[in-house]
Amino acid sequence: AKLAKAATAKYSTPDKPRFVCGALGPTPKTASISPDVNDPAARNVTFDQLVTAYHEQVRGLVDGGADVLLVETIFDTLNCKAALFAIDQYFDEHPEKERLPLMISGTVTDASGRILSGQTVPAFWNSVRHARPLTIGLNCALGAALMRPYAEELSQIADTFVCIYPNAGLPNPMSDTGFDELPEDTSRLLREFAEAGFINVAGGCCGTTPDHIAAIAKVLAEAKPRELPHVPVAQRLSGLEPFTIDDDSLFVNVGERTNVTGSKAFARMILNEQYDEALSVARQQVENGAQVIDINMDEAMLDSLAAMQRFLNLIASEPDISRVPIMIDSSKWSVIEAGLKCVQGKSIVNSISMKEGEEEFIRQAKLCRRYGAAVIVMAFDEKGQADTFERKIEICERAYKVLTEVVGFPPEDIIFDPNIFAIATGIEEHNNYAVDFINATRWIKDNLPHAKISGGVSNVSFSFRGNDPAREAIHTVFLYHAIKAGMTMGIVNAGMVGVYDDLPAELRERVEDVVLNRREDATERMIEFAATLKGGAKQEAKQE
Q: Which residues contact 428 (CB under 8 A, 6 or more apart)?
């Protein structure tokens, strides 16, 4: 870095300053792919080891005088996230240092349009967007001709500058330079990129020479830089593929069956280390329409941290599962953080809260941001869980202010869980729980811009456990009203949610009386009617 800085000082002119770009490469290891075909959960490098290595590199580049940091040739987004984590950590530890601009560049390895670890270009962007880079782009692996569709795609979705520096075509061992493209070829292709409005910064990677760079500079001297597109505010998650939640999105189903506290069968599989069977549960959820899967390993007889790591590593090797975003669910922060170190996509943390005070809440929220995750915030503070409408909105408003004003958390990545509790328990104080949740949902939607609302739907019918038809009807009615009020997503068993309009009139009336707390004898009437629903085995059918 010092040598490069000396060179820029020698060649810079007032009308053409030169800058040093400190490059952090991908390393020869991958945090998302197993090196052992017989053990898909194995890794030859950990997230923490990558952070340590990148941290040292950042220190050297900054001390040597680099003007920009460039995380480049990324073939595994988890490696990239480790580099971004290390950069953030370094500048946090050195407040006296000016935070350098950041460039990020991935590499699409073939015509599939994916990086080596399986992510599409939009999913890659969603995973690293939290770092707010000066540029996002692509380099290496392909020449400009093959890179064109991905450069175009990135130019349309990135609300920052786009940097493209391709190889001089594909490698050719028979060529004198090892690559086929001459300077006029590469520069012509990049000029077309500029004319099409794809790029702000251009350059050359493997096979390009000083003559290539000179030719690119010449043809782009008068080119108009790309204008930044208007990108609407939305929650942009990712697995191997992108998943966007905005105002036009339908209700998002979060699969609940990969949760040891909610599924005895799944817990048994994990405790017996039957991970192939456990993966089939995750796969089944995605096939049945779960757009996000919730994974929880909180079981007293289990090393929940190790189980979370192993299961997430196994999921990474299953593209039909890992294409959707992951919700990392635990009551232990150490387990959540271990999970965040295994996931290359943009995940959701479930959950953080102010139950241990604001200071710990801020610390965890900052780390979630640094790992690039959205967060579910429980309506829970130092006084306990919010059970009334007033307490729900008081805690959510306070948390929203702390997150947006103190932490700098994007409001669209905040998801509130105002607590779904069981109704029809026979205790009078519980009768209004569903109404309070629905009203709190409406209030959050109207008063906390861009925030989302979630909840564990099966809790509402807990007093009818053992009676699946009654539970399904309660879930159906509850969701019908909660979604109308603005509920964004819910942790649900999709097989236990029906269609509101298909419910028999009398059943719907009794359930609605309970859910909306419309009459004093609603619970008794529902219990009486529920007894007539038992028996008939439900015909299992795959629902579209």
A: none
Q: What is the CATH number of the domain that holds 442?
A: 3.20.20.20
For residue 146, which phi and psi values (nearest 5 degrees)?
-80, -20
CB 101 within 8 A of CB 134: yes
| Number of CB atoms found within 10 A of residue 356's CB | 15
Write the CB contacts of 532 (distance below 8 Å, at least 6 apart in sequence): none
Do 443 and 529 belong together in one domain?
A: yes
User: What burial letters (b/e) apply to 428-444, b meaning 16+ CB within 10 Å?
Assistant: eebbbbbbbbbbbbbbb
**Nearest in space to 160 (alpha carbons), one of 134, 183, 123, 140:** 134
Tokens 């998302």 belong to 32
What is the tens place of the pLDDT at every residue in 33-92? 999 999 999 999 999 999 999 999 999 999 999 999 999 999 999 999 999 999 999 999
Show Cβ contacts of residue 453 under 8 Å, excluding neighbours closer than 6 positions: 415, 416, 417, 418, 441, 444, 445, 486, 487, 488, 489
Q: Where are the alpha helices (DSSP H) in 13-76?
A: 47-63
pLDDT per residue as tens digits for the range 397-445: 999 999 999 999 999 999 999 999 999 999 999 999 999 999 999 999 9
Is residue 232 one of the residues assigned to a domain? no
Which domain range does residue 510 map to?
Answer: 351-534
Q: Is the pTM of this model over 0.90?
A: yes
